[in-house]
Every structure is written in structure tokens, then in C-alpha cells.
UniProtKB/TrEMBL annotation:
<dbReference type="GO" id="GO:0043565">
    <property type="term" value="F:sequence-specific DNA binding"/>
</dbReference>
<keyword id="KW-0804">Transcription</keyword>
<dbReference type="InterPro" id="IPR037923">
    <property type="entry name" value="HTH-like"/>
</dbReference>
<dbReference type="InterPro" id="IPR009057">
    <property type="entry name" value="Homeodomain-like_sf"/>
</dbReference>
<dbReference type="InterPro" id="IPR003313">
    <property type="entry name" value="AraC-bd"/>
</dbReference>
<dbReference type="Pfam" id="PF02311">
    <property type="entry name" value="AraC_binding"/>
</dbReference>
<dbReference type="InterPro" id="IPR020449">
    <property type="entry name" value="Tscrpt_reg_AraC-type_HTH"/>
</dbReference>
<dbReference type="GO" id="GO:0003700">
    <property type="term" value="F:DNA-binding transcription factor activity"/>
</dbReference>
<dbReference type="Pfam" id="PF12833">
    <property type="entry name" value="HTH_18"/>
</dbReference>
<dbReference type="InterPro" id="IPR018060">
    <property type="entry name" value="HTH_AraC"/>
</dbReference>
<keyword id="KW-0238">DNA-binding</keyword>
<protein>
    <submittedName>
        <fullName>AraC family transcriptional regulator</fullName>
    </submittedName>
</protein>
<keyword id="KW-0805">Transcription regulation</keyword>
<feature type="domain" description="HTH araC/xylS-type">
    <location>
        <begin position="169"/>
        <end position="267"/>
    </location>
</feature>
């Protein structure tokens, strides 16, 4: 494994698109790129072909790999075609990174869980890059190394999907792709082609929590990122994150994070 070489973060940001966007880099982006889709959908060139990118897709590109990103209208579960795409993106380089990249065979895309620990690493890198005065740039370097090693761990621990848990992962993907819209258990069951009771049982058996508990987790994580990084009103954040009324959103947000959405925004904006 790489040891004590350089690792430099060039750009780290969070973007939320509601208008079409095209990024074309046929000769590569000249640096390494990690891009984590957190909300909505877009399309990117993966393994030489334009593919749909969903929430939970982590894209990895080396400096000379052709890169193409297109954000346009995609159909949501309600049949509407909307532009909606949120992502973290980090451009980085260095001798340490060169050695890290060569240590594993790296696909352009891996499916990851949008866990608190993973999102925190991306968020901290964004916050470090936004500091006006930063006498300790090496902090971002260490965060970046941790993120790279976390990618290695995800690659090594990526679950093998068997026949017994395939349905559970199908349900999980449906939740992550559609969390910003209102849906019922019956909608998931119809989409997968199973009964509600069987879907509920298989999901709880595979992940240790109910379908609705996991849906709430995804929606709260989605709302939290939008509260910190987007200019949306808190009411719009709640609506666009799959909550059908602000009173309920306020209550569950305070219960999860120990403060109101407004207090959460103020505290985290002061750190930026």
C-alpha cells in the first residue's frame, strides 16, 4: 500500500442541479475524480457507454479516462420528467494517490450505501476547501486518504447478492432512487413483483430495519445535505426530500439530530 507520499485535494464541492447541465472531457479531467450521487438521477459515461446514475452510485475516474456527464430531465415514479440531481465531487492528485489507484482494479462505478460515515467524509472535505483562511491544508489531505481507503474497504466488503437477498437489495435500490417522492409499501411491492408481507419480511431480515425506517433514514440524510449546501427554504427542503408536511419533518428531524432544521442550518453555515 502507499505510505508517505503527497495527496492533494484540488476541488471539493456539493452541487444540486435543477437545470440541465453537460460536462464533456473526452481526453479526461487531468486529475483523479470521485463523484457521489446523493439525490435524483443523471447520466455519465461508465465503461465507455452512457449509463443512468442513481443515488448511491460512486463514480471513480483516473486522469486520462474520458469523462462525460449529462444532467437532464429524468422520469420520476409519478411519471413526471424533472431535472433533479445532487452530488459530491472531489478532484485530487498526488504520488500517494497514484500508488493508491494502482493497488486495486477500480471500476468506473460502485454502488455504496449513503451512510453517515461516508457522507461525513465528503462533507468535511467540502468544508475544508471552503475555508477562507486555512493554515492546516494537510487536514484535507488526511481526510482524502481516509476516503480513498474507505473506497478500498467498500470494494473488498461489497456484498455478494444471492437469490435469497436479491429482492431485499431491489427494494433498497427502489427506496434510494425514489425517496424524494411519496410512495407506499404497495408501490414498492408492485414494482418488484412480490407481496407486501414478503417484501417487508425479506428487507427486515437482510438489513435489520423496516422498509419505512430505512426510507426515513434516506430522506433525513437527503434533507440534511440540502439544508447545509442548498439555498432552498426549509419548507422546500422538506417537500423535495419526500416529507408531505413540514410539521412532521420538523419533529423527526429534531428527534434525529437534536435540533431544529433552522438551528442545524445556522450552526453548519457558520462553519463554512
Amino acid at each position: 500500500m502507499p505510505t508517505d507520499y503527497s495527496c492533494q485535494v484540488l476541488t471539493a464541492g456539493f452541487s444540486f442541479h435543477r437545470k440541465p447541465y453537460i460536462g464533456l472531457h473526452p481526453e479526461g479531467v487531468k486529475n483523479y475524480l470521485l463523484r457521489l450521487q446523493t439525490d435524483g438521477r443523471c447520466r455519465a459515461r461508465v465503461d465507455g457507454e452512457m449509463s443512468l446514475v442513481d443515488a448511491g452510485d460512486l463514480l471513480l475516474f483516473s486522469p486520462d479516462e474520458p469523462y462525460e456527464l449529462r444532467i437532464d430531465k429524468e422520469q420520476n415514479p409519478m411519471g413526471e420528467r424533472l431535472v433533479e440531481s445532487g452530488d459530491y465531487h472531489i478532484f485530487f492528485n498526488g504520488d500517494w494517490v497514484d500508488e493508491w489507484w494502482k493497488h486495486h482494479k477500480r471500476p468506473n462505478r460502485i454502488k455504496v450505501q449513503l451512510t453517515e460515515s461516508l457522507l461525513t467524509l465528503f462533507r468535511q472535505l467540502v468544508l475544508e476547501q471552503r475555508r477562507i483562511s486555512n493554515p492546516y491544508p494537510e487536514i484535507a489531505s488526511y481526510y482524502m486518504r481516509i476516503l480513498c481507503l474507505e473506497v478500498d474497504r467498500m470494494l473488498s466488503e461489497h456484498p455478494t447478492i444471492t437469490n435469497t437477498n436479491y429482492v431485499a437489495y431491489e427494494i433498497k435500490s427502489y427506496i434510494e432512487e425514489n425517496a424524494s417522492s411519496l410512495f407506499k409499501l404497495e408501490d414498492i411491492a408492485t414494482h418488484i413483483g412480490i407481496s407486501v408481507s414478503r417484501g417487508v419480511h425479506l428487507f427486515k431480515e437482510a438489513f435489520g430495519k423496516s422498509i419505512m425506517q430505512y426510507t426515513l433514514d434516506v430522506r433525513l440524510n437527503m434533507a440534511r445535505e440540502r439544508i447545509i449546501f442548498s439555498p432552498m427554504t426549509l419548507e422546500h427542503v422538506a417537500e423535495s426530500s419526500g416529507f408531505n408536511n413540514y410539521t412532521y419533518f420538523h419533529r423527526v428531524f429534531r428527534s434525529r439530530f437534536g435540533m431544529s432544521p433552522k438551528e442545524f442550518r445556522v450552526i453548519h453555515r457558520e462553519q463554512m
